[in-house]
Structure formats: structure tokens, C-alpha cells
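Suppose you are handed a protein chain with no further information: no name, no annotation, nothing but its sequence. What can you learn? This example shows the usual starting point.
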Amino acid sequence: MKNLATLIFVFFSISIVSAQETTVKKGHYNTSKFRQLKQDLPTPNKQHTASGAPGSDYTQQKVDYVMDITLDDKNQKIIGFEKITYHNNSKDPLTYLWVQLDQNIRESHTKNDEVSTRGTRALYSPKQFSKKFLTNDFDGGFKLQEVKDSHGNDLPYKINWTMMRIDLATPIAPGSSFEFSIKWWYNINNYFIDGGRSGFELFENDGNKLYIIAQFFPRLAVYNNVEGWQNAQFWGTGEFALEFGDYTVNITTPSDHILNGTGLITNLKELITKKQYNRFLKAQKTFNKPIIIVTQEEAEKASKEFSTKTKTWTLEAKNVRDFAFSSSRKFIWDGMAVQLESKKVMAYSLYPKEGNPLWEEHSSRIIANTLKEYSKFTFDYPYPKAISVNADRQGMEYPMICWNHGRPKNNKVVSDRLKKGMIGVITHEIGHNFFPMIVNSDERKWSWMDEGINTFVEIYAEEKYDSKLFPTSKYPKNIIGYMAGNQDNLTPIMTNSEDVKQFGSNAYHKPAAGLFILRETIMGPELFDYAFKTYANRWKFKHPTPADFFRTMEDASAMDLDWFWRGWFYTTRNNDIGIKDVTSYRVTDIKTKRATELLKKYGKNIDEIPASLYLVSEKSEEYNRVSTTKKPQELKILEDYLKENNISLKDIDIPNYFYEIHFEKLGGLIMPIIVEYTFEDGTKERLQYPAQVWRKNDKEVTKVFTSSKKVVSIVVDPDQQTADVNEANNHWPKKAENRFESFKTSTIKE
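A reasonable first move is to predict its three-dimensional structure. Written in C-alpha cells, the prediction is:
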């Protein structure tokens, strides 16, 4: 059939060529959207190679912590002492260390107040008014008491808001380590009043508090072979860049608290009742449903005691980039085992009675599903457990633990909206264990590398858990409104975290939608999944950059995706591909006026041309005189040609209908053209023309479609697989005006 189509269109291809006047223009740079991205990416080296893999000279620091922490429930304070061992694995001598003091963002007056440019509102709640106009009486921030070396000598240091430089008398040589200690305390914030990713929630009905504690200790900043020290200030949006290390943390709490956090609790048997410990052991062997370890009845009893006694929890964690914990009298605790391909891990949930019945039914099951689905995309979850904590108005992640919102109202009614929100936030925050807790990108600089990539995998994990609440059919159409928005309020994905506009769409949804398009439409699941898993395994427990991701996806798939990275990640352009015009043709063996005139223009006489087939346009006066029924002479011409080339006419379906479709690209993005043809008998055929169809002409392209059946409609991107922002021009014949009609792509700046 292909040979036949080639024969028919040899002359047709010539006929659509039009002579153009040549004008002399000045030279210009390569402005093709298919030009290579190499000039924009950092130069590869022996640390971060051209393939996207870590190189032979790649190095990474290691920081170990031993901490003694007291949670002062009466005064809402954290009191801490840490011994730190810094391992200099780089090839550079270090004359100072940079330490993150993220709690300092909650000082009573900070730089965040100084840079705020928000005006007044028309109305304020008392909480909003007091926070903006009244003196902030919360005394936040780290209170450092000492910074000493291993011999007890004071170390000189300089605090620059959320960063502290420790000056060293002797540089830390390559391959050596340095031990020092810090003693501190700080007031824990009520995050309902003061905001924040951690703090405490007060239950006014019983006076109890639920603590979610993170960024609670001075932490070493990253020193890497990309930019040296990552010592950017913590302004609140860009999150954290941290080194891996081993932790031993002793946490003293009231004796009636239940606590869990990063790492294994090594003395758990001493801290809970015998019944509770037996349930804990049972949970280790139960894979089909959560086992209640601390019951609601036990939690309600503990909530009334307010013991003045204390107990100390010891947690140990290996090769983690951070540490966090949660503690409360109100906690119900359940858990279940999760079988991955190569190992068993535990899923735990901590929640107050206010979280039921929703949390008891779903939380640990969601964790199990998330660990399984993310492991399929990446690697088997390497840590021994993952914990979901029910903290109202929260959604935040740390190694092995996260806090998540979602509580029924007082009537205990669980709506689909509430359930969907709770499934979504737990899946997302547990998923962050993979990105960036293990594939450890720089959140302070590139939010999309953890939020966007994580949101992408989340799509499939949620669909697996509940396909009715989370249909994948909503992607990537969910990003169309954002992509079609005011360009003055958009920033490229490749923008520093603090400079991003519309953070949720930019850092979460647009990169996730882009990767969804890449997997489902451009690369295909098989090629994409192999490359994505290669990236995850190359960079687990390491510090990847955006270039490492881009290069690995191409290196492992043999696909040139520079056009995609440039358009989707480096610009705010959008996709608008439409049908400009469609012309139908019929085939005839009668010499046409169109062919005669065209040949004459090139100095040829049509009578000199051997017996040929001609296509006559529906716009031609000859069109109605040409029958769509195949004539004997037409078949004779074909039979002679096929016989000469040893091709049998048997089973060859000669097309009756020929369509010349002119596609126009009004948006700035390059995308494949997905076209659905509907025939007179109601059947359909779908074709996808790859993005490279736009290589030679970035504005318009022409494709020819042949069929033995009459086409009654043509639709571009019928399922909105490419986030096309203007559906009005996607149809032939043109549809009646719809809700996209008012959108004018011509107004979009590129």
C-alpha cells in the first residue's frame, strides 16, 4: 500500500510546490526550537557527566549527628545538644562550615517582613489583623548557648539570619573529619497562629497538643562540586538542601506521649505497654490490613493524665538527609507490613481520634500503596518504615515521616472531597521519600525537581489506589488554564524557587503534566520508564542537578528531547495547534488543468509526460466531472506499474479519497500532532505525527491523508493529550463557538 501511495503522490507532491521570490536577508543565529540545549546546560565534567550519570570524580560530604533532645510540653520548648561529625569527602580543604538555622525565619522581625510588598486588604479577620499590624510577641528562632570543638573550646561563628558560618583554626583536609558540638533551645510555634512547616497544634477541648517537629536542630548545609556551599538563605518557599549521614537521637517527652520519627526506635519495648508491644509485633507480620498498636481508648485515657514524668525515646537512622519526629498524648498508632519486590518495610500512621474513621481505614493502606507504586517507577524503598501523621492544615515531608491534613467534621461524615484530599496529600508526602529524600535534589534552588517529579509519580499511585477519584484522564488538561494565562504572571519552570510566580502550578502541576505528556504521548511508557528508573537509580543518595535529569532521560532512551526541555521547562510558551485548511482531492487519469499549468511553468509539456494519475482539487471546476469510482484505465496504469515491479494487485486497496490538511501552530511550543479521522460509516482512525514534523517550518505544516472511505471530520488532540490551549481551531469542519473561542493565541507573548 505504501508503494502505491508513493506512486500516486509523486506528481501530487510536485503540484503543491509554489515558486517564491528570494530576498536577501542578513545572517542570523540558529533560532530553531530544535537546536541543541547543550549551550544552555552546564558543561559536563568528571563529577556530572555528559550522559547525566555521576562521574568518576563525583564526591559527596557526609554528616553524622548524635543528639539529646527534650520536648518541654509545659512551656512548648525544644532543648537540644548535638555532637556533629563532618566528613570532608571532597578534594578541597575547608576553612569554614555553613550551618542552617531555619528556625530563625520565625524571629519576631525578619527579612521576610522587610521584603514583603503586599498592600492592605479591604477586610481582616482578627487573626489576620493582629498578625499584620500588632506587635508579634512570639519569641521565635534558635537561642544558641554554645558552639564548641571536640576539646571543649569555643568555636568562633557568625550568624547571617538563617545561616551560620563556623570559622576553623585549621582547615578540614580532604578525606578527614571534624567533630564539634552545638547547644541550643527555641520556643515551639503554634503553627495555627504563626504558620510554618512544623510546630504544635492545640486541642482546646482537652488542652492537649500535637507536636510535629522539624528543622529543630542546626543542620549542615550542602558542600558540592557544582557550586561549593549551598548557603542560600531560607526565605520560606525554597525548601532544603542537606547532606546524608547517620543519626542517633534521644528524645525526652512526657511519659504519656506516643512518639515516632525518622529511624528505628531501638528501645520501644521499654516505652509502651506489653499489650501494645505485642500488637506492634503482630503488625510486622500483617500485610492485608493495619493493626491497631495504640488504641483510641488508650489514647483517650492518656489524653486526660498530663503526666509530669518523662521517658526517653532512642531512634537510630542510617544514611538519611534529615530528621523529624512527632509526639502527642492523643496519638492512636496503627501499622502494617508492606511487601516490595526485594524486601519488607512497615507503614505506620499516627492520628488523634479526630481523624477517625477516615484515618484508621485509609492512612496506612495509602502508605503501602504509595511505597509499592513508587518503587515500581524507581527502586525498592530502602528505609525500614514510612509514617503518616495526621496534623490539621499540614502537608510536609521528611525522611520516613510526614504530616498530613484531612479530618472529618464533627458529624464524622466522610465526603468524597475529604477522602480525595486525604489520599492525595498522604500519597504526595510519602512519595517525597523518593524525591528528594533519596534522589536528593536541591530544593532551595529547584522546587520542580522534587515537587514536580514527585507529583508526576503521584498521578499513577493515586489512580492505583482509587481510579474513580483519581482518573488519569484529567492530565494534562488540568494545566491548560494556567498555560493560557497572562504571560506577565508566569515564569519558566527553570526559575529559582523564591522567584517563581503561581508556585503550585509552576513547581507542581506544570512539570508533572509535562512528564505525563513525555511518557504517554512523546516517548511511550516503555522508553520513558526505563530512562526514568535509570535516573532514579543513578542519583539515589546523591545530589542531582536539572542537567543530570535531562541528560539521563535522553541518554537512556536514544531520544533527542532538547526541544521539549527548552519549550516546557525554559519558557512560558504554550501549545496551540489547529487545522487551518483542508482540501480534498479525487484521482483521475485525465490530464488536469492544474497539472498542465504547473508543468508549463517549469518549461515542460504535459503531452510529454507518460501515462499518469492526477489529483484534482475539490476547489477545481473539474472536480465534479471526476467520479470517485475507479475506472478501468486508472487500474490499467497501476497494473502495468505493479507488474513491472513484481507487485501483486491482489488485496491492495486503492484510495478513493485524498485530503491535504494544513496545520498551523499558533502557540510557541513544539508538540506532536495527534489527529483523529472520523469516516462516513462512523469508524475512526487516529494518527500521531511526531514533533519533528515542525523542524523546517515552525508555523505551518501540510500532511496528506488517504482513505478508501470518506472522511467527515478531523480533530486535533481529541483527548487533550498535549495541553492544547485553544480547542476552537482543533476541528474540521469547524465547531460552533465554545468556551475556548474567546481565547486569542495571537495575544500571547513568547
